[in-house]
Every structure is written in C-alpha cells, then in structure tokens.
Amino acid sequence: MIYFIGGSPRGGKSILAHMISQKLDIPYLSTDDIRPIVMAYFSETDLKEKFPFGADDMPTDDYFNNWTGEDMLKAEIIEAHSSWAGVKNLINHLRSGKMDYVIEGVYLLPELVKEFSGDADIKIVFLVKEDAEKIFQGLMKNKGENDWIATYVTNDEMMMTAAKALSVYGPYFADESKKYGFKCVNTENNFHNKLENTFKTLTVGN
C-alpha cells in the first residue's frame, strides 16, 4: 500500500506520515526531499520560472517578509507541477514493485494525485489548518523542536506573520479536496486525536 499525505503546512502531514511509517514499518519520504533531485535536471534559466522559491537558503524571517501567503501558495503550486513528473515516476516505480511506502508533502496537490483516485493500492488523505491564531499557537508550542519555522523565526510578531501566511493554504486544500472527492481532515482542534483517527481509517485491514 502507498499512502499519500497531502495538505497545508502545519496540518500534521509529517507527524501522520511518521506514525504510519513507524507503526507499519514501511519507508517514508517527503516531497521536500524529492525537490532538490528534480531541480538538478532544470537549466538555470528554467529554475527561476519552475521553482520560484529558488534554493531555499534564505533566513526563515525573509520568507515571511518577502512573500505573502497568496504568493507562497502560488509558488508551491508552480513547484508541485514542475516536480510532478519525477514524483509520478517514483510512485509508478513503487506501484510496479508492489512496495509499501508513505509519501507526504504540499506538492501532493489534489489536482495532480486525482489520477490515482480509486487505485486499490493507494490511500490518499489531506490535512489542513485554516485558523491563523491556532497555527500561531501550534508554532509557539514547537519552539526548540527542530521545527524550521518555530525554531528559526526571530520573534513572536514574525511568528504571527508566518501563521497568517500559512493559513492561506488550508482553504485551498479543503476546496480542492472536495472538488476531487478526497478525504480532508481539519486538525485545528483535538490535533492528536484527529491524527490517530485518520491513521486508523487509513490502515484498517493492515
């Protein structure tokens, strides 16, 4: 079985993916890790168009100073489409080999993974958060937990700026999930219970 865990930042994608990976003893991969591999096959000129975020080496504060939530989402959608050929080839390789795997990430857009809808060997779910205040509270709890935002954003004001930007993703993924008929779980309340219940739903019969 291959599990796709998509959705908005802070929704719990990585936590759920790790949960499935550890409890079922199967490999786990983030589309964030596929990104630099795919980027190597684009020319320098094409990179600027196909991967607007560039090399991802700017200080965390600069992301949220320089990009609105709408701009970030637009860039992620462009990058998801730019990466899709590589991600899709990996998925088809795993399917042909009957391998169990967990793949998570923002790049798993509903419009892209829809071609795998109905495949008996693939399970798909999207996790979202839409409330900026609740995203902010979650970020504050994650300080010092190797969280790339919570640990490296320099102050609480910038943390709220980050939360407001990230809140833009939730409605997009919720609407797209509904459009293409995928299960979408809002994890703003009872976060860990929602993830446990989603895990049970995805892995029933395993």
What level of helicity do the residues show?
40-55%
The global form is: globular
Distance between the termini: 9 Å
Write down the secondary-structure element order.
Answer: EHEHHHHEHEHHHEH
Sketch the major β-sheet.
5 strands, parallel
Overall strand count: 5
Strand percentage:
5-15%
- Total of DSSP H or I helical runs spanning 4+ residues: 10
Q: What class, by secondary structure content?
A: alpha/beta
Low-confidence stretches: none
Mean pLDDT: 91
Number of domains: 1
- Rg is 17 Å
Specify the CATH architecture. Answer: 3-Layer(aba) Sandwich
In CATH, what is the homologous superfamily? P-loop containing nucleotide triphosphate hydrolases
CATH topology: Rossmann fold
Instruction: Kindly provide the name of the CATH class.
Output: Alpha Beta
